[in-house]
Amino acid sequence: MKKFINKRKIVILLLVIVSATSFYYVYNKVKINRPISAKLVFNEILDDVL
Predict the structure, then answer these.
(1) How far is CA 5 from CA 1, 18, 29, 44, in A?
(2) pLDDT tens digits, residue range 28-38?
(3) Do residues 38 and 30 lie in contact, with contact meaning Cβ atoms separated by under 8 Å?
(4) Which of the residues in the chain have pLDDT under 50?
(5) pLDDT, position 18
(6) Is the pTM of this model over 0.70?
(7) How many Å is the maximal CA-CA distance in the chain?
């Protein structure tokens, strides 16, 4: 049971880190562009990761 909880925590942590870095990447890439395109790029990165 403890191993499962630790694994879950690690997975959540990884997801948070990945989403944060990808969000930062998108923010830098699409600074003043439309939010829709930023969302598309963000979804693309998420699809690549998942």
Answers:
(1) 6, 20, 36, 30
(2) 776 655 566 66
(3) yes
(4) none
(5) 87
(6) no
(7) 47
Q: How far apart are CA 7 and CA 15, in angstroms?
A: 12
Cβ contacts of 30 within 8 Å, gap of 6 or more: 37, 38, 41
H/E run at residue 10: helix 2-29
Tokens representing 10 are 């690690």
The residue to which tokens 């998942």 are assigned: 50
* Contact (CB, 8 A) for 28 and 45: no
Please give the distance of CA 21 from its chain centroid, rounded to a whole number: 6
